[in-house]
Amino acid sequence: MKKFMTVKEAVKCTLPVLAGYLVLGAGFGLIMNANGYGIWWALSMSIFIYAGSMQYAGAGMMAGGASLISVALTTLMVNARHLFYGISMTDKYRGSGIAKPYLMFSLTDETYSIVCQGEKSSSFYLAVSLLDQLYWIAGTAIGSLLGDHLPFSTEGMDFALTALFITVFTDQWLGSKRHFPAVSGVTLSLLCLIIFGKDNFLIPSMLSITAALLISGFAGGEVKRDE
């Protein structure tokens, strides 16, 4: 009964992700199909890579014959933020046992936004992570199958992932009283974009945001001790 309630709570919390991932996953499936890759290629990427924006980028790189080095560097740049996601979740996932590697693997932006709120059980974290990936896989299958039967232009479709990220950001802003992380993230990202350019700003942004949050955390700790 307890497990059923945990899954029920996870389903309720992930409904917004369901709506987004079905559309985004379908978009990825359509793009893969348009580039000549069938449903098994698309599903394999969604099962074993499961990297959202990198899957969109990877589809184009595969079609363009990019080298392994280019793919590796692009993956590092696009998904560098997940290093910091994982580090911030080490305490929450400490008692997860054999599920811990999967929980780290499946920590997408949207999953992170759910599991980082409050303290829940390891079963809840696992249920949320599994459900979110299943939504993405289902969307991928739908898009790939539709691409076989419907003429569809994929131009501009990759922006859907950016739109979902903006929605998650807005929800986090409205639901939090402390806006320093969001403001510093946006400000430092824009500054790094201006300094380093669109092709090289991601890693400097992540490093500078991490430094700002660490300094903020230490400063907050000092204030509490003084009080």
The tally of helices reads 11
The tally of strands reads 0
> Largest sheet at a glance?
none
Shape summary: globular
Number of domains: 2
Residue share in helices? over 70%
Distance between the termini: 45 Å
**Which structural category fits the helices and strands?**
mainly alpha
Q: What order do the SSEs take from the amino end to the carboxyl end, as H and E?
A: HHHHHHHHHHH
State Rg.
19 Å
- Provide the residue-averaged pLDDT: 81
Strand content: under 5%
**Uncertain regions spanning at least 5 consecutive residues:** 222-227
Explained architecture:
With 227 residues, the protein is mostly helical. It folds into two domains: 2-155, no CATH class; 177-227, no CATH class. It has helices at residues 2-34, 39-48, 53-63, 68-78, 81-88, 100-105, 109-115, 122-149, 159-175, 180-196, 202-226. The radius of gyration is 19 Å and the shape is globular.
Quick synopsis:
With 227 residues, the chain is mostly helical.
Descriptive labels:
227 residues, 2 domains
What is the topological layout?
Blueprint: H1 2-34, H2 39-48, H3 53-63, H4 68-78, H5 81-88, H6 100-105, H7 109-115, H8 122-149, H9 159-175, H10 180-196, H11 202-226
Helix pairs in contact: 1-2, 1-8, 2-8, 3-4, 7-8, 10-11
